[in-house]
Amino acid sequence: MGWTRLGLAGAFALAVLTVSTPATAQRLGAQRFVPAGSEDGVLGTEGADRREQFRPYVSLWYDVADDPVVVVDGDGERVGDVVGAANALNLVATMNLVAGLEVGVAAPVTLYANWGGAAGQVGLDDFPRAAFGDLQLRLGYRIPLTWRTSIALHVPIRFPTSPDDDLFSMGFAVKPTFALLHGFDHVDLLVNLAYMYRADDTVVDYAGGQEIEARLAARIGLDEQWDTSIVAEVAAATTTRDFFSAAGTPAEGRLGIEHWLNPDWRIGAFAGTGLSRGVGAPDWRVGLHVAFGVQPPRPRPHWTADDQDGDGIPDDEDECPTEREDEDGFEDQDGCPDIDNDSDGYLDVDDPCPDEPETEGGLSDDGCPDRVALEEGGLVLLEPIRFEVDSDEIRDESEPVVAEVAEVLRRHPEIRVRIEGHTDAVGPPAHNLDLSERRAQTVRAHLVDAGIDEGRLEAHGYGETRPLGSNETRRGRHRNRRVEFKIIGAEDGAVEEVQ
Question: The pTM is what?
Fold first, then answer.
């Protein structure tokens, strides 16, 4: 009986199978899927495109591989499974430290692997059903050649942090990987060529050791910004101890889809199948991932020798020649990305008011200027409280305004206020009076729910009787629909104007 996916394909009898390493050393390297370490990588194929400095890429991958290690006889017929199925997690984290240079780590975990039963027939010991895999240190350097073409050298270094009897481990290994990227209008093509240095391991009649590996991958953007893309790769390797042997030449094809939920978060799924009977090439593999990083700019920036970052601003005029201008309408001529336009400490991607700074020491900490000011005589709303049409239901967008009113009242427990509701003159006066009363009472109820003593709050509706503008114009009617806060009691000198 011979092995493919775990040894040479030949007609060997079980009695003559030998194990040249101790029975506990079973490092077959049966987990062949290792995710790429950056946003521009495709599944397991490493990328070469430019990356933003000091912006981390973190991804979590889950995959299930069916029958990655099996036993066959001399005629190629399957006899049994060594590993029936394997469930694995891969956590990858990298960062570009300076222009082109990146560093990262990868941590694989076998969540559960089925004991297939055939392992005992060929002399393998039982292996861990779950285990921490070989920790990786990742180093890389990227070199853009043109605005469409880049190259990179990646050097992942594996450390034998998994148990000796773990079939998915390779032990200590170093794999220098050359990556070439060429981009078209809606397609990126990637090629990886790698040589893996590792100690020779003979397990039963499988001659493991140093390997040559090649990968070909493509990413096809389905829209102008490539928010959604189809990804595909073919990966193959062969051991230098037995070139192109059946067991020593795993190959696998994978096809998937990726989608950027926003410029920072990406999700994806893929499915694949083994293209050979090599160790680690499964019958099928499926996987999911979620990633945090920086969505590569598309359409692709037009790099030139005089414009390294491709933002259209020549390097001699560009204050940030290696970082692309983000073209958000704010200081777009300085050549620098403006991640916080209003300089209030809230990044634009998280700032609901990216062009209006947070009020320093103000009432709320939400990235927006205060919406309420306290003056003698009342609270001034810098942003109105809005209601649903012909309703006393406060719109979601106005909840922060009410929250700030509550905060002002908490900071000034010495004052009492009257909440006044007003409407325009559209509709019957009696209806408008009732609507204004209900709106004032709703605001009062919200403030009480926020912890304000109800004894400090009065509410009254005035309908259309106190207009600020003409009810004959749209602008006037808009001014008339309002809620006001009047101070009806305060200690002398207690209320100071708050800007």
Answer: 0.59
